[in-house]
Each structure stands twice: as C-alpha cells, then as structure tokens.
Amino acid sequence: MRTSFISSLSLAASPRTNLLSLQQQLAKATEEVVTGRHADVGTTLGAQAGRLVSLRSDFDGLEGLRTGNALAAARLDQTQVALQTVSDIGNELLRSTLALPGSDHAVSLLEDQAAVALSGFESALNASDGRSYLFAGINTAEAPLADLDGTPMQSVDAAFASAFGLPAVDPQSSPLVKNISPAAMEAFLEGAFSDLFAEDAWKANWSSASDAAQQNRISTSRTIATSASANETGLRKLAEAYTMLSRLGAGELRADTRQVLVDHAATTLNGALSDLAGLQARLGVAQQEIKVANDRLSLQLDIVAKRIIAQERVDPAEKKVEIDTLSTQIEMSYSLTSKIMNLSILNYR
User: Fold this and answer.
1) What is the pLDDT of residues 312-343, one digit of tens each?
2) What residue ranges define each of the domains in the chain, with the CATH number in brackets?
C-alpha cells in the first residue's frame, strides 16, 4: 500500500484560487444589474456584436441630425424675429410717408424717422446667433453689412453731388438742392441712384454676404436652405427707400420735387415689404420642414433604441439568481479556507 501526502497549505490555497474568479464574476453581474446591459457586450453577443455596432452607428447618426436641426431651427427663429422687426419698421415708415403733410417740420421728422430706420436695418442685418451672422449666407464669420457711414453713404453722397453739381461734402444741405426739378429727380432716382442698389454695386459697397444660403441635412434624404442673405432683393429695396428719404435732402427740396421723392420712396417701400413677406414665407416653409423631419427622426430613434436595448439588456431576475449563487460560493470559499487553515496534526492522536 502506498501513501501520499497532502499539505494543509495546498488545501488552503485551492479555494483561494477560485475566489478571485468568483469575485470578478460577482462584480460583473452586479454591474449588469445596475446598468441593465451586458458588461462585455462583445463577449456575450459574439458574432452578433457587429450588428449592435451598426445599430449604434445608426442611432448616433440620427441623433446628430436632430442636433443639427435644433441649431438650424434656432437660427431660423432668430432670423424671422429680425425680419419681423425690419418689416414693422418699414411698415411704420410707409404709413408716415403716405400720410406726410406738406410742412417743413413734418418733412424733417420723416427724414429723422428714415435715418433711425436705416440704423435699425443695419443692426438687424448684422445680428448674430452667437456662432454666426444670420444674414451672411455661408460667409458666416463676417458681418454682412458694412459700416453705413463709410463706403455706402459716401457712394450715395458722391452720386447725388455728381448728378446735380452739388458740393462733394454734405451735398444734401446745399442751397443748390432747391434747384433740382421733378424731372431731374425722377431721372436720378431711376438711374444713378437705383444703380447704387443693384446687385453688383450692393456687393461692392454695402454687403460682404454670400448669395448662397447655409444648407442643413434635416433627414437621411433631405437637405434644405436654412438661412437668408443680406443680398436679398427685398432687403436691398428697403435700404434704397430708407436712404432715399434720409440722404437726398428732402427738407431742402422744393415741394413738387419732394413729392416725386416721397412717391418714389413709398413705391419702393411697398415693393420691398412685399418681397420681405415672400422671404419670411420661404423661411417659414423651411421651419415647417424641420419640424416634420424632427417628428420622423424621433420615431426612427425610438425604433433603433428599442433594437439596441433588445440586444444589450440582461434579465434582472436571472442576474439576481446569479448574484445570490456567486455570493454563496464566495462565502463557502471563505469558510472552507478558514477551516483548512485551522487544521493541525496536534489536534489528532
């Protein structure tokens, strides 16, 4: 008969060898109960993990579209507010123009009102949402309108002085303004003055905005324009009408010539406001498209999220049983190790 020896050290080490593995399994199971998803998705799903990666990529893409839509919607909302402010000021000036009495004081008030409107126009078109200029088109880093006291008004004064032989400095205050006939004023307004607000001259003297609007992909299959440009026809006409009333010496003109100026300004203002309403409607369509796209994105995100959860989630009841089992095994391991460590030959005779 052959006898083999087993030391108490080897007996004590055996339970401890499995203890670390049991503790790791318990930590993993506890994490899964807390998070509700597999701790190691790749290991658990195996070949199905690639499908989960694809689903998460789809979810992130849809979420990115929704975030972009939120930014575009905010920009459109602010643009609409600015346009409404400009429109309200323009309508108020149009009413004042149409109701203008013949007194010099009334004409002076109209000039001041037009100057204030022009200043408000500059502020509105140079508005920013904190990230980009609203009316800059795709040239978002640069304020779209130049300082009006610079090149824009200098070009107007130069054209006015040249057309009627007036002093180059402050031509609208010259006594010679009274010599301008109605026919001459009509020709100037429809010719040299109107040319200052034509597209090429506007871009050269007034605006650094891009004609191209910012584009946003609002869904997986739809991209739309989500901004306006300071080069829009209606905005150029507004600037023309404001400048006409504030910069061409209305208070110094003779009555019949002044009437030509005021009538022309009213016609220009009316056309500008009509064009502005069309611009607001166009942006409104974009706002509605974003709303519809967001509703569809929400549905898509819900579907993808449910598919991801179905792949990743764990059964809480099953994990509770697993935790209880692992806890019992760990307790038994501690108890067994303790008893083995207390074994001694001295306890036996």
Assistant:
1) 666 566 656 666 676 676 666 666 666 655 65
2) 54-303 (1.20.1330.10)
